[in-house]
Amino acid sequence: MLTIGGAAGAASFTHVHNVAASHGQDGWLAWADAIVLELMSIAAGLELRYRKRQHASTRFPATVLMCAVTLSIAAQVVEAEQSVIGWIAAALPAVGFLVMTKIALNRAATPGPHRAAAIPDPVVPV
């Protein structure tokens, strides 16, 4: 799971960097765009999990996550071959990264089986 998520994140990161660099974000700015966009997805996922545990509104982090994924997919599709297959293939890293993040966050959020503390039998005087 970590390998798939890492590969998908790296591919998505590379697409975002390349698009930023080819559209006027020279040098470190292209790297910053890629870093910020990819880490926003992770941060939004972590915040979603936290807010669900606190029974708080998840609207803002869910919106941030969807915006980050949409921008990442857009960056990948811009570089793709202009065909349906090209667009699907280009979108795979962002979708894969989102899916692996979701699986990892759900696993971390799932509590283990709850075991009740053993209650000893009452002591009977002899």
From TrEMBL:
Keywords: Membrane, Transmembrane, Transmembrane helix
Chain segments annotated as transmembrane: 60-78, 84-105
Designated name of the protein: DUF2637 domain-containing protein
Entries under InterPro entries matching the protein: DUF2637 (IPR021235)
